[in-house]
Amino acid sequence: MTEPEETVETYDVVVIGAGPGGEVLADRAAHAGLSVAVVEDGAVGGACSYTACVPSKALLRPGAALASARAVDGARQSVTGPPEPEAVLARRDRFTGRGDDSGQAAWLTAAGATLVRGRGRLDGERRVRVTATDGATRVLRAGRAVVLATGSEPVMPDIDGLDRIGVWTSERATTADAVPDRLVVVGGGVVACETATAWRSLGAEVTLLVRGRALLSDWEPCAGEEIARGLTGLGIGVRFGVTALAAARDADTGEVSVTTDDGGVLRCDELLVAVGRRPRTAGLGLEDVVPGHPASAPAGLPVDDTGRVTSVPGGWLYAIGDVSGRSHLTHLAKYQARACAAALAADAGRPAAVGSWQPGTVRAAAAQAVFTLPEAASVGLTERAARQAGFTVRTAEYRTDDVAGAALHADGYRGHAKLVVDAERRVVLGCTLTGPMATELIHTATVAVAGEVPLDRLWHAVPAFPTVSEIWLRLLEAYGL
């Protein structure tokens, strides 16, 4: 008896992953008149909506609001206590819906995409096999392209016993239902600094173990220095040059003990590991379609500015967002999604349907924001990266404290600004800001970097007085004519 022929459903575009990048790609491609199927085995909206950007900022905002009030005499006297943990957690849950994706799933369908629930795996050229939770399978064929938008996953360091104690990752740290009395955080990057700040503001005793000698080691040194000062000021223990070797949880008390390479033992209620993320590629079947690519790799897929995977013959496979390895930023994933959709629309002869977007004509400038106390934000190249790239570099630095608008914004305002300039072309290559409002102020620098605005023109962008934005005038003065 012969097996029945397998049914294959055909769409112009098949997207694996319904996070921010996958959602935007599906919306834009459908808007261009392409048929789109989106495969998702988790929640539509991805980690950003439920376990990353949104809940972390919801946890951080109450503490920041109180700190802002305490920094202004006259308002300070009205602050009577710390954030109320139950109310903070309830507000976070209102934003995340505790993982309920019904609203975003409905939006995706209304945008014109077909949502296919299950785990997607490449099953040959332009084919995706989807396995549902009940084991049922279906095959989707992409007439034009398969787009990978599977995001990233936490990196787990080599710490003995880590896999046996129920360790927190960033996902658990943003969704916990109670404040731990004692929290140890392993890491010194953005996630480590933000989660340490959030849980400390809710009353936890927090210790940060940093293997290196600085926080945010890929940033300008001033950012890590200012954040370290801020964390210490909040009462967070920051220990540099310390590596966690082993961890164990007491079966009776639930207490976690963390052994470090300096011979010490830390005891806590929860251990958070936040040492980085890697592209989520395992189980996608990449080894069958990408020449020389292992089943799982720490680096992302090599892509061009439209997201096309350059090593795949035929140009049918695309990757956007974290899985492309370019940057683990939600807003950059959305940017890449728009570029990818524009390329797909153009290939289909429908470029007008997505507007005048021209991917690849400029290098994207995507800001990074850290919502600690103080805040830090950056865009473009650091001085070190610019010099390594071969630019002739000049820099300008200025204490934001000395700007009149900053002094009015907060008593004891403390902040730092650094500008990295291509001295030959006299355009801004990068900018780093710290201090209150840094995450909002950075977009001015983003426009300058993306637009390659000459310094001679920036002199004529006159900031309002008295605002913190006057820092731009001071940076230009520090740079000189």
TrEMBL record:
NAD among keywords: yes
GO molecular function: oxidoreductase activity
UniProt keyword annotation of Oxidoreductase present: yes
EC assignment: 1.-.-.-
Record keywords, A-Z: FAD, Flavoprotein, NAD, Oxidoreductase
A Pfam family annotated for this UniProt entry: Pyr_redox_2
Entry's family note: Belongs to the class-I pyridine nucleotide-disulfide oxidoreductase family.
Protein name: NAD(P)/FAD-dependent oxidoreductase
Cofactor: FAD
Classification via InterPro entries: Class-I_Pyr_Nuc-Dis_Oxidored, FAD/NAD-bd_sf, FAD/NAD-binding_dom, FAD/NAD-linked_Rdtase_dimer_sf, Pyr_nuc-diS_OxRdtase, Pyr_nucl-diS_OxRdtase_dimer
Organism: Streptomyces racemochromogenes
Highest taxon of source: Bacteria
Domain FAD/NAD(P)-binding: 11-337
PANTHER family assigned to the protein according to its UniProt record, in alphabetical order: DIHYDROLIPOYL DEHYDROGENASE, MITOCHONDRIAL, DISULFIDE OXIDOREDUCTASE
Boundaries of every Pyridine nucleotide-disulphide oxidoreductase dimerisation domain copy: 367-472
